[in-house]
Write a structure and sequence with these properties.
Number of strands: 14
Helix content: 10-25%
Order of helices and strands: EHEEHHEHEEEHEEEEEEEH
Shape: globular
Number of domains: 1
Low-confidence stretches: 234-255
GO molecular function: glutaminase activity; lyase activity
Radius of gyration: 19 Å
InterPro entries: Class_I_gatase-like, PdxT/SNO, PdxT/SNO_CS
Strand content: 25-35%
CATH topology: Rossmann fold
Number of helices: 6
Distance between the termini: 24 Å
Catalytic activity: L-glutamine + H2O = L-glutamate + NH4(+)
Bound molecules: glutamine
EC number: 3.5.1.2
Oligomer: single chain
Structural class: alpha/beta
CATH class: Alpha Beta
CATH architecture: 3-Layer(aba) Sandwich
Mean pLDDT: 88
Largest sheet: 7 strands, mixed
Organism: Digitaria exilis
Strand order of the largest sheet: 2-1-3-4-14-13-10
Length: 255
């Protein structure tokens, strides 16, 4: 069975581990760069992205994380994890913040406001329901949440939500001292997929709805199936006995 890693530097990694356990999957806590070599997919949890980035730097995780994402293995960022995966983040602390990148989008770090403006809402998620069944909606838990302001053409939007009326207006200074409002639309994107990258601004691991975790595990299965077809083999035509033991299927075979 594929090994799911959960980046365990800070934030809600315990909750992701528990959510995986609930669906019979054993997650592996990842704290060191070399541990990424032993996992097939990775969840980057929510928390506080500046702190998480400092810890990731301290443990020299950024190069390995970039390699992991660039190598096409499935990665899911929730909340702070979404910020990590974005190619561009605004509303970050003075002095900047290191990002892993890979996801073609611009994220606002605290789009919905402060901790006090955290909220829960029902999100319309037809594409999730199509794959995983159940209701066309899911519970979205937004904790000092980011949101996605812009996406590139390869990014599929899986959920958006109305911009709450009490959201503080967010401005960024444009260098010459003038303040520019960053967002004026009445809805904002909160879940996306680009190839093997999944990102949600909210926290599915804090609800009992396992569909986002199942959806993510499905991405892992899809990428293994692709590795099989790249070898011109179909997974069903392969006898498990014929497979090399403990060998990643997406590595070239030289022997
Ligand atoms: N719940 C969360 O992960 C919040 C993320 C937070 N806005 C940040 O800057 O990291």
């Amino acid at each position: 069975m594929a090994v799911v890693g959960v980046l365990a530097l800070q934030g809600s990694y315990n909750e992701h581990m528990a959510a995986l356990r609930r669906i019979g999957v054993r997650g592996v806590e990842v704290r060191k760069p070399e541990q990424l070599l032993g996992v097939d997919s990775l969840i980057i949890p929510g928390g506080e992205s500046t702190t998480m980035a400092k810890l990731a730097n301290y443990h020299n995780m950024f190069p390995a994380l970039r390699e992991f994402v660039g190598g096409g293995k499935p990665v899911w960022g929730t909340c702070a994890g979404l910020i990590f995966l974005a190619n561009k983040a605004v509303g970050i602390k003075t002095g900047g913040q290191e990002l892993v990148g890979g996801l073609d989008c611009t994220v606002h770090r605290n789009f919905f406001g402060s901790q006090l403006q955290s909220f829960e809402t029902e999100l319309s998620v037809p594409k999730l329901a199509e794959k995983e069944g159940g209701n066309d909606t899911c519970r979205g838990v937004f904790i000092r949440a980011p949101a996605i302001l812009e996406v590139g053409s390869d990014v599929e939007v899986l959920a958006d939500c109305p911009v709450p009326a009490n959201r503080p207006s967010i401005t960024i200074s444009s260098g010459d001292g003038a303040e520019e409002e960053v967002y004026s639309k009445d809805r904002v994107i909160v879940a996306v997929r680009q190839g093997n990258i999944l990102a949600t601004a909210f926290h599915p691991e804090l609800t009992s709805d396992s569909r986002w975790h199942r959806y993510f595990l499905g991405m892992d299965k899809e990428s293994h199936a692709k590795a099989f077809s790249a070898l011109s083999l179909s997974s069903s035509s392969i006898d498990a006995e014929d497979l090399p033991k403990n060998k990643p299927l997406d590595l070239p075979i030289f022997e």
